[in-house]
Design a protein that fits this description.
With 464 residues, this protein is α/β, with parallel strands linked by helices. Helix content is 43%, strand content 18%. Strands 1, 2, 3, 4, 5, 6, 7, 8, 9 and 10 form a ten-stranded mixed sheet that branches.
């Protein structure tokens, strides 16, 4: 008998085809955690994906189960996920869309975290926006420009590796709709659905995940991890890809946002939720939608005033004075945003030792190699300025003895604030010692070894 908690894995699908669907299913079979069941929930498919699901059910009847709506109806994402939830037997429920994949260690790492934090209703991490799968797929063209930029991580929070109490995460979501977890990253206690209900079935496509997350964020603590356990495939035949091909993506995003905000207002009223912060941010988010003419008028007047002030300043203030004033203001704003979060565990620095400065944003892919390279060159002091990272940059940096790490409260545009940042670091930490400012993707030998060799990494990062 398996004593591990059972995880019910739900894949919803509608005309999923073969390649992506099979990859999604196989990523569950590849899990290093073995106590799971797979519920394949069919939203009325008319292609081969129904047959594929039935084939897996026949091959693995103890592990895989096929579900469909009465009459093989097409009822949308929310109703199809609820179908899976109603049939789930597991203590935990996890979701995967038919074109995404889980990494093999997802369940093995996620289950113990929730087990050790019984107060948390849900766990999620960051998700890899997956473009690189297209590199060997010449038929996919719509997102080729994105594929060239490379994969990147979603922004899911500003705090990581801890339990976060309500309503903090929904406040983030109201401030910035891009800060939210992907559905394929979630692991949720089944009892949460018994308490709050499932997905809202009026949301058949977009924003159904925001609705569920909001219900949880308002009522329960959640554990937010900095780990990545899943890949969200970006492709032209996805829900959002189809909207983009039709040329209605922007309109659909605005309409979906308004529908979500209107739902949230009614939900707060029905649940008698009195949080002043939530209501304030909600009304602020709703205002441009409900008063578009006034909002547009004010926005235009603000722009005109800004343009007039800028032209007036150019006419009466010399260039040198404008430059000085702009840099002074940037310096004040930047300095007020800085805090030291990590100091070296040992200090044996000399005035003759080099100081390496680095300004970085989301540099976890490069950081370990960067630190080890300069440490091996004899650098005993590295000053790292973390410019609003949303990944594990600070967490990785904390593992090294030779680092001082500073962090900004917000992310500053690198091209505008670069000189201000470098000046601040040099004035505060160089103390007339030799110093050099390098990018996170630069591994330099010179001037530390007396030659001109430069060993850049094979990739470069856009630090803006």
């Amino acid at each position: 008998m398996n004593n591990k908690p059972l995880v019910s894995c739900i894949i919803i699908f509608f005309n999923a085809g073969e390649k992506f669907f099979v990859e999604a299913i196989e990523s569950i079979f590849a899990q290093t955690y073995d106590h799971w069941e797979l519920l394949l929930s069919d939203d009325g498919s008319t292609d081969e994906s129904t047959e594929i699901a039935l084939r897996y059910t026949q091959q693995y009847p103890e592990k895989v189960h096929y579900l469909e709506h009465e009459g093989h109806q097409n009822r949308g994402m929310s109703a199809t996920r609820n179908l899976g939830i109603r049939h789930a037997r597991g203590e935990y429920i996890a979701f995967l869309d038919a074109d995404d994949i889980w990494l093999p260690h997802k369940l093995e790492q996620q289950v113990p975290i929730l087990e050790s934090h019984p107060e948390a209703a849900m766990l999620y991490g960051r998700t890899q926006y997956w473009f690189s799968w297209m590199k060997n797929n010449p038929t996919s063209s719509t997102l080729k420009s994105d594929a060239i930029k490379g994969d990147y991580m979603t922004i899911t929070s500003i705090e990581f590796d801890k339990v976060i109490n309500p309503p903090n995460q929904i406040l983030l979501l109201l401030k910035n709709p891009n800060i939210y977890p992907c559905t394929c990253s979630l692991l949720i206690r089944k009892q949460v659905f018994e308490t709050l209900g499932g997905f809202e079935e009026t949301f058949q496509g977009a924003n159904e995940d925001m609705v569920l997350n909001s219900k949880i964020f308002l009522k329960f603590p959640v554990y937010v991890s900095s780990e990545c356990w899943d890949r969200y495939r970006r492709h032209e035949d996805s829900y959002w890809g189809n909207l983009s091909k039709q040329g209605i993506l922007s309109e659909a995003v605005r309409a979906g946002r308004l529908k979500y905000l209107n739902w949230l207002e009614q939900y707060l009223l029905s649940q008698n939720i009195q949080s002043g912060q939530v209501w304030l941010l909600l009304q602020k988010a709703l205002w441009p939608h409900r008063h578009p003419i006034i909002y547009g008028f004010i926005k235009q007047r603000v722009k005109e005033t800004k343009d007039f002030t800028q032209k007036l300043g150019q006419a009466i203030i010399p260039v040198w004075a404008r430059t000085f004033l702009a840099n002074f203001i940037r310096g004040v704003v930047f300095r007020s945003s800085i805090k030291i979060i990590i100091t070296p565990k040992k200090n044996n620095y000399s005035l003759n030792n080099w100081v390496v400065f680095c300004i970085v944003s989301n540099g976890e892919s490069y950081l370990s190699e960067f630190i080890e390279h300069y440490h091996n060159k004899g650098i005993q002091e590295i000053i790292l300025l973390d410019n609003g990272s949303t990944d594990r940059t600070a967490s990785i940096a904390s593992q090294y003895d030779c680092l001082t790490v500073l962090q900004t409260k917000t992310s500053f545009k690198y091209s505008i604030y670069k000189s201000v940042m470098e000046k601040y670091l040099i004035q505060r930490f160089s103390l007339n010692r030799p110093h050099i400012c390098v990018e996170i993707n630069e591994l330099l030998n010179f001037p530390f070894q007396g030659d001109n060799d430069s060993l850049p990494l094979s990739k470069s990062r856009n630090l803006e």
